[in-house]
Write a structure and sequence with these properties.
Elements (H helix, E strand, L loop, with lengths): L2 E9 L2 E9 L5 H10 L9 E4 L1 H9 L4 E7 L6 H4 L9 E4 L1 H7 L8 E5 L15 E6 L4 H13 L4 E5 L12 H7 L8 E2 L4 H10 L3 E6 L15 E3 L10 E5 L8 H6 L2 E4 L16 H17 L4
Parallel strand pairs: 4-5, 7-8, 7-12, 8-9, 10-12, 10-13, 11-13
Antiparallel strand pairs: 1-2, 3-6, 4-6
């Protein structure tokens, strides 16, 4: 393992920085970036972010940043983030070919960072009038990232991910979910991998009303919720109080015991289908976004 001589990055309105150039694929820094950008998470919880917008979000999030890596062509992005790099953070450079070998994207922009996300607890989601979105068995990382992005944009105080029976939820800090969140996962408090039973108990302890999102026209059969859990439209819910929105698996929805535990089930009505095969229900990310928007609309409406 060896490093080439240091070179200087000249950035617009940024100071010249002596940057070590890594030329060996066996370099320990490249190994760390390769693992993190592929979604591997060690005991330290470090995650990899790639692309100029995500790196900018990471550096501006005030989270601990382990290192910044630039490719030869990606060095042009340094002027955009140089003012956000804290003293002591290693800035490294490597040839385009080596960077492409560690990148998770097909057309890498040549800039990446190692960042340590904050460790949130349920208590961290409870500030102000809580509005929490919980994902139970949401497997698509694109859906998870989009829900987190919508949650931040629409005023949620935090999010949580839970397994649903034997179905896990995608890691909100995985590469695809991070990209779909557009950096929101680095700013919004997220409690990952918590048991649904524990989360529901904690929400009850904080007196948060729990609303289970269900597909329009869903047949409850033997899993019909109890009398307290009536089926309502989004505008029939008083979202101005402490609330949690539960979003289930893309195919099977929420488990029966979760539906029974909810204060109410809420569905988004859809227009009558015109196609012969009928209209598919909205996917998890779209449903969560609509419910979050209705919550924000009510919370921002003038009070009578």
């Amino acid at each position: 393992m060896r490093m080439a001589p240091r070179v200087s990055l000249t950035a617009r309105k940024a100071p010249k920085t002596q940057v070590p150039v890594i030329t060996s694929r066996e370099n320990h820094w490249l190994k760390r970036f390769r693992a993190a950008l592929s979604g591997e998470r060690g005991d330290d919880g470090i995650v990899g972010v790639e692309g100029v917008r995500l790196v900018e979000a990471a550096l501006g999030s005030q989270l601990p940043v382990e290192a910044l890596l630039l490719s030869d062509s990606g060095a042009r992005h340094f002027f955009r983030v140089a003012h956000l790099v804290m003293p002591g953070v290693p800035v490294l450079r490597t040839p385009d070919k080596l960077f492409a070998g560690i990148a998770d994207t097909r057309t890498p922009q040549g800039i990446a960072a190692l960042v340590r996300p904050r460790r949130a607890t349920t208590e961290n989601l409870m500030h102000g009038i809580p509005l929490v979105v919980a994902m139970l068995g949401v497997q698509d990382p694109g859906n998870v990232g989009t829900i987190v992005r919508a949650a931040e944009a629409l005023g949620a105080t935090g999010a949580a991910t839970c397994p649903a029976e034997s179905i896990g939820t995608a890691d909100p800090f995985g590469p695809k979910a991070l990209r779909a969140s557009a950096g929101s996962a680095l700013r919004l408090p997220i409690v990952p991998g918590v048991s649904a039973t524990i989360l529901l108990a904690q929400l009850r302890m904080f007196r948060v009303n729990v609303y289970a999102g269900v597909a329009a026209g869903q047949k409850f059969k033997s899993e019909r919720p109890n009398s307290a859990s009536s089926l309502r439209n989004p505008w029939e819910i008083d979202w101005r109080t402490s609330a949690a929105i539960l979003i289930g698996n893309e195919g099977t929805g929420l488990p029966a015991e979760v539906l029974r535990a909810a204060d109410a089930c809420v569905c988004i009505p859809q227009a009558a289908a015109t196609a012969r095969v009928g209209l598919e229900s909205l996917n998890a990310a779209m449903s969560a976004s609509i419910l979050l928007y209705e919550a924000m609309r009510q919370r921002n409406a003038p009070q009578p």
